[in-house]
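Researcher: Go.
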Amino acid sequence: MTQIAIREAIPADAAGIAVIHEATVLAERGRGHYSDAQVDAWAQIRAPAELRGLMAKRRFFVACAAAGPVAYAQLDLETATLNSVYVHPDHQRSGLGRDLVQTAIAAARTAGLSRLEFDAALDSVSFYEALGFCPLGDLHEHEFRNGECMTCVRMGRGLDGDSGG
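Model: Structure:
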């Protein structure tokens, strides 16, 4: 069994994070929630330099196997937003997503935040609900850099034991 550890990301993880993002999003193709054009826009890789810039402003956590990162989460403490949680398709359904969300929640609590919010892709809503997050209202459109949009669900959770809206 492969050992996987969660740790704070370092700048050298940026290329691996980009690969995880692209592979995870492209695995959405054909699942029925989003069109090919939406998946392509969502999958656009951020350059490692851009990711390193985001790492300077946000907290990134990675789940690492011997070969490197296989999953990541991105937490913006300034906006109390869980920006992303992605698990490479080869490692999904292993508990890594849950573990990364719990790591981000613990970091948010330590930083003094009382709640987290984010936009969830349609197929991830039940995953987040199982972790105590609740939808906060109507569906809305998330716009990508190229102008393509995808429908998301705004979700939130209190961090003091109160889960939800």
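Model: The longest helix spans residues 96-110.
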